[in-house]
Specification:
This protein has 234 residues and is of the alpha/beta class. It has eight helices and eight strands; from the N terminus they run βαβαααβαβαβββαβα. It has helices spanning 31-42, 49-59, 62-72, 79-90, 108-117, 133-142, 181-204, 217-232; strands at 19-24, 46-48, 98-102, 124-130, 143-146, 152-154, 173-174, 208-212. Strand 5 (143-146) and strand 6 (152-154) form a beta hairpin.
Length: 234
């Protein structure tokens, strides 16, 4: 079922090992949290299209300005913009040993482009976090983000010690405009309409493995890591 279920040493044990992970799921499903942990586990870069967009928008690059209007309205950014950002990133030297993609691909067209750009001989896993829409909306209502370092808090569950100030770096903690309920609902609508076919695409290829994302983060992480560890030992 897995395209590259073959024996290999963990990335931190062999500099020659590559590992490509694709993490799917609706916006707010916890992909970012799990992606950071898995990237650390396997010592590969965590590449988030959302972070790439925000970086380019903060820097005021032409492509960042083009992406801004789509992101703020909850729409998917056109493939041309996404592909330009993404493939420039994975071409950098730190991705030679592999990488983890968070937020890409989102469409079958993007998946086809990824297949062209990646090495099919290296281990490749598509992991999907399933979370109900109502849970996503509830999570977004309380989400807070540090403007400086990007750490995510929750107003009700895990707020910063001092209101409005990041525990990690002292930066300003705020609520993003794209976490407003009406924007989240629009993003979920777009996700189901345009990204759901991607899940079917990978499922039909036998590459998709789904996980219950409506669990504590530590439980989700343990399940994801156990699956990868078991698969690569086959």
């Amino acid at each position: 079922m897995l395209e590259s279920a073959r024996p290999f040493n963990a990335p931190h044990s062999s500099p020659q090992t590559s590992l490509v992970l694709v993490l799917l799921g609706p916006p707010g499903s916890g992909k970012g949290t799990q992606a950071k942990r898995l990237a650390q586990d396997y010592q590969i870069p965590h590449i988030s299209t959302g972070d790439l967009f925000r970086e380019n928008m903060t820097l005021g690059t032409p492509i960042g300005l083009r992406a801004k209007s789509f992101i703020q309205s909850g729409q998917l950014v056109p493939d041309e913009i996404v592909l330009d950002m993404l493939f420039d990133r994975i071409a950098r030297p730190d991705c030679m040993r592999g990488y983890l993609l968070d937020g890409f691909p989102r469409t079958v067209s993007q998946a086809n482009q990824l297949a062209v750009h990646r090495n099919v001989k290296v281990p490749f896993f598509v992991l999907c976090l399933d979370v109900p829409d109502e849970v996503i909306i509830k999570r977004a209502e309380g989400r807070l983000v540090c403007k400086q370092c990007g750490v995510i808090y929750n107003r009700d569950i895990s707020p910063p010690v001092h209101a409005g100030i990041c525990d990690k770096c002292g930066g300003e903690v705020y609520r993003r405009a794209d976490d407003a309920p009406e924007v989240v609902m629009e993003r979920l609508k777009v996700y189901h309409q345009q990204t759901q076919p991607l899940i079917q695409y990978y499922d039909e290829q036998g590459l998709l493995t789904s996980f219950d994302g409506n669990q504590p983060p530590d439980v989700v992480h343990a399940e994801l890591k156990r699956f990868i560890d078991d698969a690569v030992r086959l």
